[in-house]
Design goal:
The protein contains 13 helices and eleven strands. With about 325 residues, the protein is α/β, with parallel strands linked by helices. The chain has a six-stranded mixed β-sheet with strand order 8-7-6-9-11-10, sandwiched between helices. The protein has a five-stranded mixed β-sheet with strand order 3-2-1-4-5, with helices on both faces. InterPro entries: ATPase_NBD, GppA/Ppx_hydrolase, Ppx_GppA_N.
């Protein structure tokens, strides 16, 4: 990222992103400092993940329960205090698939703002996909060719297709790990995904996959064989790992692979989604940079500060 300053030394600024997903809510705090050579030094000050598991309420009953609403309010108060401790100057809080689908989302957001002082935006799948894409481009801008950026969440899967550095489409599918465990993924969503991937494979040869999300990061770390230099592993390795995880109970996965309970259940449907997309595209390798929506939110906030948009009255 390149910026210009009018005069004097640019000061570091601290940003925060809150990502409220279907499985967990994350707080990321980063300090961004422009350097004299036009680049930016980024320092991660804190990353906190709490498994609220909103999707299990929403995808089963259509609403967030009073208990989970209370936990959301408690957590947002904690996040607000942490942002004060780290002197955060600018933040953005975004909620994704579960909050998009819940019937009582707007009321809960109002109560959270009143109680915790945090304003939450419910973003659509297209904006979510675009922010994930923008962050990937920053981290992987030196790679040419055709890539599908796949971010698998609890409620949805975001897919961005980049051909030789140009974004050709961003799509969001209501296929996620929690939604799968709840048994509410509609067949037409899978058909839409399959049709889109089949069309990609037909028109563009040699498409690669760059995976995003906590599950693919964990699967990469669990893989016995991986390429640590370019952060990738074989689809065949993922398949073998999936075959090992599938027959195990959640408790057995926790014990054998040292997984937390909120990861041990969702990791299998996540692997299924990645394997399905890889199979449709005929991909042999998956790249796994450790980045996500929260990083994309902070990048967008920083970019807005560097290139503000002025609106006339």
């Amino acid at each position: 990222m390149h910026i210009r300053t009018k005069k004097g030394k640019a000061k570091a600024k601290t940003y925060a992103a809150i990502d409220i997903g279907s499985n967990a809510a994350r707080l990321l705090i980063k300090q961004m400092k422009p350097l004299d050579d036009g680049t930016v030094k980024s320092a991660k000050l804190m990353l906190l993940r709490v498994p609220l598991r909103l999707g299990f309420d929403v995808f089963s009953s259509g609403k967030i329960s009073p208990k989970k609403e209370r936990n959301m309010i408690r957590l947002m108060k904690c996040y607000q205090n942490l942002m004060k401790i780290f002197d955060v100057e600018t933040y953005r809080a975004c909620a994704t698939s579960a909050m998009r689908d819940t019937k009582n989302g707007p009321e809960i957001i109002k109560r959270i703002e009143k109680s915790a002082g945090i304003k939450i935006e419910i973003i659509d799948g297209q904006e979510e996909a675009q922010m994930v894409y923008n962050n990937h481009v920053e981290c992987l801008g030196d790679r040419d060719g055709n890539y599908v950026y796949v971010d698998v969440g609890g409620g949805s899967t975001e897919v961005n297709f980049l051909a030789n550095g140009k974004l050709l489409f961003s799509r969001s599918y209501n296929i996620g790990t929690v939604r799968t465990l709840c048994g509410v993924v509609k067949p037409e969503e899978w058909q839409r995904l399959k049709s889109d991937m089949a069309e990609l494979a037909k028109v563009h040869a040699g498409v690669g996959i760059i995976g995003s999300g906590g599950n693919i990061n964990k699967l990469y770390r669990l893989a016995p064989e991986k390429n640590k230099q370019n952060l990738s592993f074989k689809v065949s390795t993922l398949r073998a790992l999936y075959d090992e995880l599938l027959p195990l109970s959640v408790e057995e996965r926790m014990e054998r692979f040292s997984l937390k309970s909120d990861r041990a259940d969702v990791i299998v449907p996540a692997a299924e989604i990645f394997l399905a997309i890889a199979g449709l595209l005929g991909v042999e390798d998956i790249y796994v940079p450790v980045i996500g929506l929260a990083d994309g939110i902070i990048d967008a906030l920083y970019e807005d500060d560097c290139h503000p948009v002025f609106h006339s009255a």
